[in-house]
Design goal:
This protein has 374 residues and is mostly helical. It contains 16 helices and 3 strands. The protein has 2 domains: 221 residues, Citrate Synthase, domain 1; 97 residues, Cytochrome P450-Terp, domain 2 (Cytochrome p450-Terp, domain 2). It has a 3-stranded antiparallel beta sheet. Bound molecules: coenzyme A (COA).
């Protein structure tokens, strides 16, 4: 018998936690009360990390200290790099990264310690090491050696340096930095909720982050940006775009990068990513990815009335930055690590086990039938 009616399929409209980290109101997203537009324009990823973790923008001294801590914590244990060399090169990149995060715990003496201080340190280590993991996986599977992090570079610059072996230009580094700012947190999205559920059992921070990564991987969540790129590659003309959208809608397929559970009047992050995609299309002299995206956007709006979400233009932005498709979702995770760890710390600070109810819709109570009588 049902214990309670389901409030909304997929928990739609259900308030499942209190949080002071980020908030969505209409088409506005704020981190600790500050508008994402202002942060994208004026701040840096490191400042945003501090804001998400500690609730306030850092002073110059606090920021320098955080940057120094992060830059000094990026290296991976040699055993972890050795283990990565044994991964199958064709493995799904999100499977590889979440496996490495699990492996980190083997060599991390703080992993099982649950003091507030140890967890704060763990958050810094995860944030600092995650880009090193993503870049190393990419290089190792191409038969190249990982590149050691450069402590003189910020998070965005250092990631691109470890990935490609050369320092990015200032424009490219700033675009990467803004993309990191835009993806850093997003209220109670599915992967952050998964992290909070794991943390609410008082499991350790690495485990909670692995739960988040497993959840981010799906195409309805963080996996959408890679799927968008796969679509863009198949389309070469306005007719293709029109036909693709029409056929997908007829088959009742979801068009990746469109729609959102919470935003109904547009995703504020998508506006920024669209501008960045346009800027890069002009700077690289390659209009294809931006123009194809625009055509699809136009058709989806016309044929289904849906607006792009964060993943739609982030696909072409990453493509212009010459980042392989299979790294799109791991890069999303690199930024969201700020939000995951902030939410896990917030959950630990005022914890109660997250354990909802299910509306049971199975058979009425009945007896066991022995196997020979079935
Ligand atoms: C994000 C998403 C999962 C939100 O899902 P949701 O809140 O459960 O919304 P629903 O799936 O119930 O969609 C409501 C209606 O809009 C349609 N819709 C929503 N997103 C759609 C999309 N991307 N393409 C086509 N139709 C879509 C649904 O088919 C449904 O139509 P119906 O009422 O006729 O059945 C969904 O929009 C989606 O799958 N988008 C594509 C994946 C994506 O880009 N994910 C990244 C999110 S940031």
């Amino acid at each position: 018998m049902a214990q309670a009616a389901v409030q909304g399929k997929g928990l739609e409209g259900v308030v499942a936690a209190s949080s002071a980290i980020s908030s969505i109101m209409g088409s506005t997203l704020t981190y600790r009360g500050i508008d994402i537009d202002e942060l994208a324009e004026r701040s840096t990823f490191e400042e945003v990390v501090y804001l998400l973790w500690y609730g306030e923008l850092p002073t110059r001294q606090q920021l320098d200290r955080l940057c120094g801590d992060l830059a000094g914590s990026r290296s991976l244990a040699p055993e972890v790099i050795d283990a990565m060399r044994r991964f199958p090169p064709e493995a799904n990149t999100m499977v590889a990264v979440r496996t490495v995060v699990s492996l980190l715990a083997f060599y991390d003496p703080l992993s099982e310690e649950m003091s507030a201080e140890a967890n704060e340190k763990e958050a810094r280590l995860l944030l600092a090491r995650f880009p090193t993991i993503v870049a190393a996986i990419h290089r190792i599977r191409r038969g190249e050696n990982p590149i050691a992090p450069d402590p003189s570079l910020n998070e965005a610059e250092n990631f691109l340096y470890m990935l490609k072996g050369k320092r990015p230009t200032q424009t490219v580094a700033r675009i990467m930095d803004v993309a990191l700012v835009l993806h850093a947190d997003h209220e109670l999205n599915a992967s952050t909720f998964a992290a909070r559920i794991a943390a609410s059992t008082l499991s350790d921070m690495d485990s909670a982050v692995v739960a988040a990564l497993c959840t981010l991987k799906g195409p309805l969540h963080g996996g959408a940006n890679q799927a968008v790129m796969e679509t863009l590659e198949r389309i070469v003309s306005p007719d293709d775009a029109r036909g693709y959208v029409r056929d997908a809608l007829e088959r009742k397929e979801k068009i990746m990068g469109f729609g959102h559970r919470v935003y109904r009047e547009g995703d504020p992050r998508a506006r920024w990513l669209k501008q960045m995609s346009q800027q890069l299309s002009q700077e690289t002299g390659n209009p294809r990815w931006f123009e194809t995206s625009r055509l699809i956007e136009e058709q989806v709006l016309k044929q289904r009335g849906l607006l792009p979400n964060v993943d739609f233009y982030s696909a072409s932005v990453h493509m212009y930055l010459d980042i392989p498709k299979d790294l799109f979702t791991p890069i999303f995770a690199m930024s969201r690590m700020a939000g995951y760890t902030a939410h896990i710390l917030e959950q630990y600070a005022d914890n109660r086990l997250i354990r909802p109810l299910a509306d049971y819709v199975g058979p009425d109570r009945r007896g066991y039938v022995p196997i020979d009588e079935r």
